[in-house]
């Protein structure tokens, strides 16, 4: 039920936000209302359209399904980052501590997101039922990546910092976007709950 309400809210927002119809030649015409609404709340919009917008059958997915896809592709990207840090490249006596710390931190991030996906895929929970937990987990993943960069900076080796920034750019942006999406879904869920309570208080809900 809540998913339907969210979709309705998305459609309504899109309709109110456009005073005029986009031209048929517009690139956004092929982007679904849900994808646009989801990506509009993110900090890294271009990355969102590039990744979440490329989901299979994206035009038919609702915001909840798009969030799940956002988490899934973030796991894939973080796994690539982990492979890079684990390869031993750029590692020497002076940098082994920082690189080792990053490996441990990214492993924690991947494990955290895998647990999140497993829970949702096994239908033990839905994003709407565990919004607070999902926000906490994604915030932790952000922190792990930030702590990794701090460790690289402390190694005082510019080439290592550049390596970290380059290899984690996509994963940090994608994590940020996933966190923004679940935060937005949470606000919608909260507004729906508040409306229901008000209706119940006035006796308009049986």
UniProtKB/TrEMBL annotation:
<dbReference type="InterPro" id="IPR035513">
    <property type="entry name" value="Invertase/methylesterase_inhib"/>
</dbReference>
<feature type="domain" description="Pectinesterase inhibitor">
    <location>
        <begin position="30"/>
        <end position="181"/>
    </location>
</feature>
<protein>
    <submittedName>
        <fullName>Putative pectinesterase/pectinesterase inhibitor 46</fullName>
    </submittedName>
</protein>
<dbReference type="GO" id="GO:0004857">
    <property type="term" value="F:enzyme inhibitor activity"/>
</dbReference>
<dbReference type="InterPro" id="IPR006501">
    <property type="entry name" value="Pectinesterase_inhib_dom"/>
</dbReference>
<dbReference type="Pfam" id="PF04043">
    <property type="entry name" value="PMEI"/>
</dbReference>
């Amino acid at each position: 039920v809540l998913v339907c309400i969210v979709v309705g809210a998305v459609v309504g927002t899109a309709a109110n936000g456009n005073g005029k119809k986009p031209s048929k030649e517009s690139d956004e015409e092929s982007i679904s209302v849900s994808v646009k609404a989801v990506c509009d709340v993110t900090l890294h919009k271009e990355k969102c359209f590039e990744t979440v917008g490329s989901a299979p059958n994206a035009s038919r997915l609702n915001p909840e399904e798009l969030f799940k896809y956002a988490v899934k592709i973030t796991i894939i990207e973080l796994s690539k980052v982990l492979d890079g840090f684990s390869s031993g490249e750029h590692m020497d006596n002076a940098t082994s501590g920082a690189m080792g710390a990053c490996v441990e931190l990214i492993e924690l991030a991947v494990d955290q997101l895998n647990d999140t996906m497993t829970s949702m895929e096994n239908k033990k929970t839905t994003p709407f039922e565990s919004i607070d937990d999902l926000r906490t987990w994604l915030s932790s993943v952000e922190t792990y990546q930030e702590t990794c960069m701090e460790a690289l900076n402390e190694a005082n080796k510019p080439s290592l910092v550049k390596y970290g920034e380059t290899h984690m750019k996509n994963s940090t942006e994608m994590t940020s976007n996933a966190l923004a999406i679940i935060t937005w879904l949470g606000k919608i869920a909260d507004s729906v709950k508040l409306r229901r309570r008000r209706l119940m208080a006035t006796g308009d809900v049986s």
